Amino acid sequence: MCRLSPPQETGLTYNSWYGKPHLEMHWWHAAHFAQWNRIDLLEKSLGWYKSIREKARAIASRQGFKGVRWPKMVDQDGNESPSTIAPFLIWQQPHFLYFAELCYRQYHNRAVLEKYKDLVFETADFMASYAYYDPPKKTYILGPGLIPAQERFKAETTVNPTYELAYWRWGLTVAQQWRQRLGMPRNPQWDDVLAKLSPLPIQDGLYLAAESAPDSYTFQPYMTDHPAVLGTYGFLPASPQLDMPTMQRTFDKIMKVWHWEETWGWDYPLVAMTAARLGKSKEAVDVLLMKVTKNTYLPNGHNYQRSNLRIYLPGNGGLLMAISMMCAGWDGYQGEPNPGFPKDGSWNVKWEG
Fold it and tell me: Is 70 exceeded by the pLDDT of residue 300?
């Protein structure tokens, strides 16, 4: 396996975030390569995960979990960097499963299953052991002791963030599929978590940012940063647990109340992916063209964020991912081409690759 490490958020141009690779951002940097038939560029950095496997396993073991716990902010050798946020983030954990699944969909052969299976299974082992079984509720919960992708919530009180719950379910489901493709029996512990994982938290007909945040749409700070709840259906495909009318209402609510100046460049592709899946093609285009500072693209193509951060590569990668889905569709889509663009004659879309 190649050992090219995941990139820094701003490449080699800015010393942003201490010049460290951030593994939760690796998806935004690299997943789009598979969509545009450049799977080799994605795979260049997957071998790096194998090279830090023992360190990731040591993190999990030290914390009382099974498998491997992928760190967040690291050096080139996978050593964790000091941070008040990084040790609590969990949404980078299923990313390796997402990458491996993209590779399988490209090749559809046993060789790719054998190549990545150990890391797929160890990632899933951590995820299953991380979910805590609450006997009174008879459900598995995520947290406390976590900070969700929307970094506005306290680690010590946050429970069951919606996007992370959905990503946990998706990841464990994919890991089971890998076992079945290899002729292996399903893992009973993973199945137990899948059967008893907490439902996505809903209040007043809307998906909450987290079960512990009933004020998700009334407390102003919770309507800033990443609208990660939309990743539940956008970043991820629909699951049997997803209620589509609730997601429709959640999307509409976020579009009305979010403080867009307090966001980041990949938030606009995230919202566009959700809009496209919901059949809101006009909104998908509109959000990608929204006139907001963090959604600015300079003449050189870079995603401008602020005066001292004129490059933000996750925004570029997110844009490529969103456009790929808006052009070619997604899991389960069977309609006409270019589903993410209005069919009123205002767009003439051509794409290849």
Answer: yes
Q: How confident is the model at residue 1, as a pLDDT? A: 43
Residue for token pair 């690759």: 353
Distance CA 35, CA 42 (A): 10
Judge contact between 72 and 24, C-beta under 8 A: yes
Side chain identity at 332, as an amino acid letter? G
Tokens in use for 192? 């137990």
| pLDDT score for 3 | 65
Selection from 72, 252, 85, 234 nearest residue 153 by Cα: 85
Say whether pLDDT at 53 is over 90: yes
The model's pTM: 0.97
CA angle 230/329/340 to nearest 5° reads 65
pLDDT tens for residues 128-176?
Answer: 999 999 999 999 999 999 999 999 999 999 999 999 999 999 999 999 9
Q: What angle do CA 170, 175, 178 make, to 5 degrees?
A: 130
Q: What is the largest CA-CA distance in the chain?
A: 58
DSSP-derived pairing of the beta strands 132-134 and 296-297: unpaired
CB-based contact 225:319 (threshold 8 Å): no
At a CB cut-off of 8 Å and minimum separation 6, what does 277 contact? 233, 234, 237, 238, 325, 330
- For 282, counting Cβ atoms within 10 Å of its Cβ (0-12 exposed, 13-18 middle, 19+ buried), the class is middle
Q: In the predicted model, what is the mean pLDDT of the chain?
A: 96
Report whether 126 contacts 66 (CB < 8 A): yes
User: In this structure, are strands 303-304 and 296-297 parallel, antiparallel, or unpaired?
Assistant: antiparallel
Residue 117 pLDDT class (50, 70, 90 cuts): very high
| Half-sphere exposure at residue 153, Cβ-oriented, CA atoms within 13 angstroms | 32
**Whether the Cβ atoms of residue 117 and residue 182 lie closer than 8 Å to each other:** yes
Mean pLDDT computed over 200-209: 98
Contact between 136 and 190 under an 8 Å Cβ cutoff? The reply is no
Environment class of 135 (CB within 10 Å of its CB; exposed 0-12, middle 13-18, buried 19+): exposed
| Distance in angstroms (rounded) separating the CA atoms of residues 221 and 224 | 6
